[in-house]
Each structure stands twice: as C-alpha cells, then as structure tokens.
Design goal:
By secondary structure, the protein is an alpha+beta fold. The chain has 3 domains: about 70 residues, no CATH class; about 90 residues; about 160 residues, hpI Integrase, Chain A (Orthogonal Bundle), CATH 1.10.443. The protein has 12 helices and 9 strands. The longest helix has 23 residues. About 25% of the residues are buried.
Length: about 375
C-alpha cells in the first residue's frame, strides 16, 4: 500500500542505513526500512512498523535514531575485518590482475605489513602515528621483512614503494563492496598522508669501462650471470623481464626477442631486435642448457619449473663488483645498465627508444 497523504521523510544513507517515515492518513505514521539478507544470495527484506501516533516531528526523530543505530551496527560489522583478512581479499581479487613483478611485491609487502602491524589489527584504527612510525623503522632497518630477519636500512624510494601498496589496498577497500550493500572500509584512514620523497634520487649510469670489467669477470661468477648481464646491456630491459624469459620467447633466426606482458612491470608486450652480442650469449646459453620451448632461460637450481629468484642475481652483481674491483656505489645495479642503454641511444627518436627499451611512455626514457 502506498502513502495516504504523500508526506514522507527519510533519514540515513540510501541503500545502507536508510529509514523512511510516512503518513498513512487514518492509520497513522509508519517507519520503513530494509533488513540485510539473511543468507547469501537472498534478497533484502522490507520491514514496516506502525508508530502509534501522528506527531510528525517526533516521527522524524525516531527515524533518525533508528538510522543512527543501523549506522553503528554497520560500522561495528565493518570493524570486524582484520588487516590480514583485508590483505587476503586484495591478493585474491586484485593482485592477480597485475604483472609478475608487481604480484611479487604485493606478496612481500603484505607479509611485511602484516608482521609489522599484526594480522589482527583493525584497518580503521590506523593513524598518522602508525604511518610515521613505520617510515622511521623502515629507514633505520628495524622492520622485519621476511624469514624473521630485520632488513637493512633503506631509502625513501623503497619506503614509498611499500607504502603505495598499503595505500592501494586501503583505497580499494574503501570502494569495494562487502556483499551487503556497504564497503569493506567505511573510509580510508591513510588518505592524504605524505609519502617520503627523495629530493635528488641517485641516477647512477654504468660506464662503458665498468661494463667491460663486469663482463670480463662474469664467467667467474656464473655463466647465467654472464648471459643476463649481456642481455641487460644489449636490450635495455628490466631485470624482472629478462630473468623471466623463456626459450620460446627467443627467435635467433629472425633475431627477435618477445617480452611478455605477464612478466613486464608495466604489462607491455612487445618484441625487439637482438644484437650480435646478444645472439652469441644466447646461443652459448642454449648449448649448455639443451632447453627449448617454454623452459626458462634462467631456471632455479632448486626447482627448474620456476625462474631463478631475483635475489640470486643481486648477489651475483655484488660478487662481480668485488671481482672487478669496482667498489660499491649506491644505486649502481642492473637498472643502471638500463640507464646506460638509454644514454647510448640518446640520438634515437624517443618513440623508438621507448619501444626498444620497454618503456610504454617515451617521457620515461
């Protein structure tokens, strides 16, 4: 039955805590609201209740009081979500849509934050104090990142990368539905907090002399390292993309290499030409491995069905620097070969350079 007089008043948020009061004429004033589904897949149940009076001002107050009670119940229900549960939901629904390197970072960051703040921490309780404390502890190396070990002190770029993951999770939770007409988080408590920023980040570029010295000692480190070092120098691609190459991605006859979107940081699938130096190390690598098809160019020693872990290549780089007597320079690593590639190709049109090196945006070269 509809409203008898046309007078109505609504309190609360539509679709969530809305309560309506309306006048049914001789039958008096009524409250109306919808109860949440009692079982998954069930519909909401509409409830009407007679107020037993005709005082509209009083009826408005009763509608607002009931809407407020519903709001408090909803907040209490949302606050039941733990940080660990939120990470698990995000990992199941959002992380799989990202590239391989992003997925790996999501897993590492989730583990680190869950250990640091506690899996049972309630996301809505986060504040600026938690944010600042994490930044200070991460800078000083007091944060346990994995395997129960405290990490080394890190710079603001790494801290910012970690915090952007936490921000992404909380921002997503503030808009992601909870299946009951609400969202996983009522609001993002971290929204607007400042992310650390290095005023003058180091952009180290490997010199030609340094590269030749690294290349000379590379076989003493590992033959896989020599192949990867040359590919990084000759293609200008990221370590994450190179270490996840499969033999089916390499076409030595056509002198092309395919970079899969799934293993690329920005999800950019494309093919680039191979130089003579790259062809030579690839041919030697394949003779040693006797591998074809979807086998990894750089398989893990423990499990050949997996690519060799990134940390192994990081260790090899440090060993090569020691053997080459280069000394340790902060910021010099595989990515500095990528910068060297861009520097040596500076006369190439930006659009072509971006494609060759795997930059999706020419402005990032």
């Amino acid at each position: 039955m509809g409203d008898a007089t046309g007078w109505t008043y609504a309190a609360g948020e539509k679709g969530k805590t809305r309560v309506r009061v309306f006048d049914r004429g001789a039958k008096g004033l009524y409250l109306e609201w919808f109860e949440p589904p009692r079982a998954p897949g069930a519909a909401k149940r509409r409830v009407r209740r007679a107020l037993g009076h005709t005082d509209r001002k009083r009826a408005k107050g009763e509608a607002e009081a009931l809407a407020l009670a519903f709001r408090k119940e909803e907040n209490a229900r949302r606050r039941g979500l733990t940080l660990g549960e939120l990470f698990d939901i995000y990992e199941a629904e959002v992380t799989p849509q990202k590239g391989q390197s992003k997925r790996e970072h999501d897993a590492r960051a989730a583990e680190m934050f869950a250990r640091y703040f506690g899996r049972n921490r309630r996301p809505h309780t986060f504040s600026r104090r938690d944010w600042d404390r994490f930044i200070a502890d991460r800078r000083s190396g007091r944060v346990v990142t994995e395997h129960g070990k405290k990490d080394r002190a890190v710079g603001d770029r790494i801290i910012a990368y970690d915090l952007k993951y936490l921000l992404a999770v909380f921002a997503w939770a503030a808009v992601a539905g909870d299946g009951e007409g609400g969202t996983l988080l009522e609001r993002n408590p971290l929204k607007g907090l400042p992310i650390p920023n290095e005023d003058s980040p180091r952009r180290v570029v490997v010199t030609s002399e340094e590269y030749e010295r690294l290349r000379k000692v590379a076989p003493r480190v590992h033959l896989d390292f020599e192949c990867l070092l040359v590919l990084a120098h000759e293609t200008g691609h990221r370590l994450s993309a190179i270490r996840q190459l499969r033999w089916s991605d390499v076409d030595t006859e056509r002198r092309l290499v395919r970079w899969r979107a799934v293993s690329d940081k920005i999800g950019f699938e494309h093919s680039t030409p191979l130089t003579d130096a790259a062809i030579a190390v690839l041919a030697a690598q394949q003779r040693r491995a006797q591998a074809i098809g979807d086998a990894w160019l750089f398989p893990s020693d423990e499990d050949p069905s997996e690519a060799r872990p990134r940390i192994t290549f990081a260790k090899w780089w440090y060993q090569a620097e020691t053997l080459a007597e280069l000394g340790r320079v902060k910021g010099r690593g595989y990515h500095s070969l990528r910068r060297q590639f861009a520097t040596e190709m500076k006369d190439t049109p930006l659009k072509d350079l971006a494609y060759l090196g795997g930059w999706k945006d020419a402005g990032r070269c």
